[in-house]
């Protein structure tokens, strides 16, 4: 990350951190880099949200992003479950001053909820947390 700072970047986004949040914080402080965002899987959000929050608080992350839905989540039967995980994650992250986002893909235009695609009808999410 020292090289990243040397070439002029001011911030970085993580996709995994290897369980070394305090060490990562020290590297960020030493290099002057800021943790702008962190990609976190739906499974981590579901199973380890407290750990996700603590890690991102430790390294000063401004945003957590759920980057992708696996094949097992890409159907209308799973949308309520996915929405619950995303909404709960957004609510909990917001309590700690961390924003939350979801990176959508083209497959979401193919999943239908009623007559609308999921990508168009995000009615199942709480807007103020995503």
Write a structural description.
The chain has 130 residues and is of the alpha/beta class. The chain has helices at residues 2-6, 21-31, 42-47, 49-59, 76-95, and strands at 11-15, 34-39, 63-66, 99-102, 112-113, 116-117. The chain has a four-stranded parallel β-sheet, covered by helices on one side. The protein has a two-stranded antiparallel sheet with strand order 5-6. α2 (21-31) links the parallel β1 (11-15) and β2. α2 runs parallel beside α4. The longest helix has 20 residues, at 76-95. It is elongated.
Radius of gyration: 16 Å
Determine the number of helices (DSSP H or I, runs of at least 4 residues): 5
Low-confidence stretches: none
Tell me, briefly, the overall form.
elongated
Task: Find the CATH topology.
Answer: TIM Barrel
Q: SSE order, as H and E?
A: HEHEHHEHEEE
CATH homology superfamily name: Divalent-metal-dependent TIM barrel enzymes
Beta content comes to 15-25%
* Major sheet description: 4 strands, parallel
Give the strand order, joined by hyphens, for the main sheet. Answer: 1-2-3-4
Q: For the record, give the distance between the C-alpha atoms at the N and C termini, rounded to a whole number.
A: 29 Å
What is the highest CATH level, the class? Alpha Beta
Number of domains: 1
Helix content: 40-55%
